[in-house]
Amino acid sequence: MSPGYSIKSVLNVVLWYLGAWALLGWLLDLFWPTVTVGLSLLLAWHYYFQFKLLDWLWHRRTLLPPRARGSWSFIYDGIYRTQRKAQQRRRNLAQLLRRFRDAAEAIPDAAIVFRRGGELVWCNKLGQLLFGLKWPADSGIRLANLIRHPEFNRYLKKGDFSHEFYLPSPAREEIELEVRIMPYSADQYLLIARDITQIRKLEKMRKDFVANVSHELRTPLTVIQGYLEILASDPENIAGGLQEKAVKEMSSQSDRMRNLVEQLLSLSRIESQRIDIFEKVVDVPELLHRLQNDAEQLNSEKRHNITFEIAPQKMYGHENELRSAFSNLLSNAIHYTPAGGRIKVSWRAVGQQMEFSVSDNGPGIAADHLPRLTERFYRVDRDRNSRKGGSGLGLAIVKHALERHHCKLSIRSEVDSGSTFSVRVPDNLIVQDQH
Ligand code: ADP
C-alpha cells in the first residue's frame, strides 16, 4: 500500500470533512440537512472519479491516468503501475519469443512447432520451404491436412517420437529429410527436420566404393585361386606345360591387384593431404622429359610414334600429383591406342595460360561416356575381366589431382578418330620469373 494512504489518514480526512459540515449545520441550526448535503457532495465527488477511472480504462488509449485527487490518486497510480509492469512483462516475453524465432531461423534445419492435436503453431522459413507450409496463413491447421504423407501422418498420430522418421521433402521430392520430434511445452511439440540428401549420397558412394573394390580384387584372386587348385590337384599338368601359363597368368593378375591398391592409395593420399600449391615450384619440362623416358619403356611393345613438345615454363604445385595426372593421361593413350598409333604430348603457352595435352589417334570414346569418365571405377569397356581395361581409377586420380591445382580436365574425343585430354593451367600458377 502507498505510504500516503492509510486507514488513519482516511478517517482523518473524513472526520475533518464531516466535522466542518456538522459545525456549519449546528451554527445554522440545520444540522441534518447540512450533513446530508456534505455527504451527497462526498458521494458525487467519488462517483466523478469513479467515472473518470472507467472512462480511462475503457475508452482512452493512453497508459497515463487522468489527474485525480485524494484517495483516488492512489487508486489511479496503483492501476497505472500494474499496467506498466504488465506492459514490461509483455515486452520481455515478445523479445524472448523474437529471440527464439531468430535462433530457430538461424539453425540450418526446418523447425515446426505444433500442438498435441497436430495444429500448426509456428514454423521457420526452412520449414516453409521444405514442407510447403505457409506461416502465419496455415497456423491452427492440422499438420495432417498440410503434409500429405500417409506414413508420416500415422507417425504423428501414434505419438511415439522416440525414433526419428525419414521422408522425402513434401515440397521438393529430391530432398530426403530426417525428422525428430520432441515435447516443447505442456501441450506443444517441436519438429526438427534435417536435409540428409548429401549424407545419403555419401553413404551410397561408400557402399558402391566398397562393392567395387571387392569386385575388382575378387576377379584376379579367383583366377589365381583357380590355377593354384589345378596345380595342387593335378601335378601331372606341371609336366604338361601348365606351369608356365599358370605363373604368367598369376603374375599378371597379381600385377593387376598391386596396381589397383597403388591407385587406391594414391587417390586417398590426394584426397586427404592438405597442400599449399604455391609452396613449391614444379619443373614441368624436367618432369616431362622423365615421362618421355618412361614412355619409351611402356611403348616398347606397341611402338607408337610419340612426340613431345615441351615449353620451358615451370608452375607452382605438387610434383607427385602433377606427375601422377600427366603420366596417367599418357599411359592411357599408350594403352588404348592400337599398335603403331600416333600420340602427341604437349606443354605449351596459350595466351597467358599454359596447356598440357595428350592427343592420340586411338579408338576414341563415344560422347555418352564422356561426362562419366572421371567417376571412380567407370570404364567404357564394361567387362571387368577384359584384358584391355584397367581399374577405372586413372581418370578419377587425374581429376582430383588437377582440381587441387584449380585446373580442369577437358576431354575431346571422336569414335575411330582419337582423343585429346587437355588441362589448362591458370596464369597465377605459372612461374613468371625464369632465372
Ligand atoms: P582405366 O584404369 O580403366 O584406364 P581410366 O579412369 O584411366 O581407367 O579411364 C576410364 C576409361 O576411359 C577407360 O576404361 C577407357 O575406356 C577410357 N579411356 C581413357 N583414356 C582413353 C584413351 N586415350 N582412348 C580411349 N579411351 C580411353
From TrEMBL:
GO CC terms in record: plasma membrane
Main location as per UniProt: membrane
Gene Ontology molecular function, alphabetical: ATP binding; phosphoprotein phosphatase activity; phosphorelay sensor kinase activity
CDD domains for this protein: HisKA (cd00082)
Enzyme class label: transferase
EC number: 2.7.13.3
Histidine kinase domain segment(s): 212-429
Cellular compartments annotated: Cell membrane
Leader peptide range in chain numbering: none
InterPro entries: BphY/WalK/GraS-like, HATPase_C_sf, HATPase_dom, His_kinase_dom, HisK_dim/P_dom, HisK_dim/P_sf, PAS, PAS-like_dom_sf
Keyword Membrane part of the UniProt annotation: yes
Keyword hit for Transferase: yes
Keywords, sorted A to Z: ATP-binding, Cell membrane, Kinase, Membrane, Nucleotide-binding, Phosphate transport, Phosphoprotein, Transferase, Transmembrane, Transmembrane helix, Transport, Two-component regulatory system
GO biological process, one term: cellular response to phosphate starvation
Residues annotated as transmembrane: 7-24
Alphabetical list of SUPFAM superfamilies matching this protein: ATPase domain of HSP90 chaperone/DNA topoisomerase II/histidine kinase, Homodimeric domain of signal transducing histidine kinase, PYP-like sensor domain (PAS domain)
Catalytic activity entry: ATP + protein L-histidine = ADP + protein N-phospho-L-histidine
Function comment: Member of the two-component regulatory system PhoR/PhoB involved in the phosphate regulon genes expression. PhoR may function as a membrane-associated protein kinase that phosphorylates PhoB in response to environmental signals.
Designated name of the protein: Phosphate regulon sensor protein PhoR
